[in-house]
Amino acid sequence: MSMKLTRRSALALGGALLSMSMAGSSLAADYPSKPITLVVSYAAGGGTDAIARVFAARLEKALGGRVIVDNRPGAAANLGTEVVANSAPDGYTLLIGNQGPMAVNPHIFKLKADPAEKLEPIAMIADASLVVVTGPRVQAKTLKDLIELAKTKQLVYGSAGNASASHLGALLFGQTAKINIKHVPYKGAGPAVNDLVGGHIDFMVTTIPSAIGLIQDKTLNALAVTGEKRFESLTDVPTAIEAGLPGYTASAWYGLVGPKGLPADVKAKLTAATAETLSDPSVLEKLKNDGATPSKVAGDAFGAFMAQERARWGEVVKTADIKVE
User: Fold this and answer.
1) Beta-carbon count within 10 A of 235 CB
2) Alpha helix stretches (DSSP H) within 64-207
3) What is the pLDDT, as a whole number, of residue 13?
4) Prediction pTM value
5) What b/e readout covers 133-170, taking b as 16+ CB neighbours within 10 angstroms?
6) Beta strand pairing status for 203-207 and 251-259?
């Protein structure tokens, strides 16, 4: 059956399309008109949480609206990812992602929300060094001491969760040092560090924000940082390479993502606000204090970076035969 489009029908259709277009433009122009929820897939007190709170505080000024950090730990950081993936693509529910849920988990878990299919890359925020720390029950003054101790008995390390930066950093440490170490995953770096202080686990390779206060007050013993150079606030702590473990470096990266289908103009506004936030001297200073370096990678380039990370960690997972514990 054929249908003729009359002049009146055409005008009505044109008006409807114009209204829809204006509504889309209005959404971006008024964005944000209500608080934005920034989901963190880990417990409060960890490295991702610390970076998220520094970022959110300044992002509010850049966007001119409230940004609320919402900690959603659980399921090896997959829970927070699912919350954002299943939210409306309007820019009001966003995620601080890192290499765990974004690049590693797809190789380990049967995901309800695959990041590559369900999430929209907005901008990378920063990458950061890690630090090897021991608790009170381990008598190791240097990284070499820890390695030698691990050759006499099995040491237990904690992490922020399966496939987190702290898990992967310790995994690579064990492989590089050729020692057999046991993994205990937690729901965030904060709870793991608490158990390290309590003597329930032996050591961690954790984010600097989660441990620096305890290092500075001598509650935890820092043996090495995992970057290519020393951390400015821990200048007496050598790099792992300086401490006698050639070839060992590890880091954590953090990025802003949203649900797939974000309006292009809302995404552009978020990208610009992120760039403004990461150019603020006070933010740069706070990131530096947390051992992090700001990034200028955004949009498609950030998406390509995450795809590369997914491929790279896929090989690591396959080689290491990582098991979910």
Assistant:
1) 8
2) 78-85, 99, 115-118, 143-150, 165-177, 189-197
3) 46
4) 0.76
5) bbbeebebeebebbbebbeeeebbbbbbbbbbbbbbbb
6) unpaired
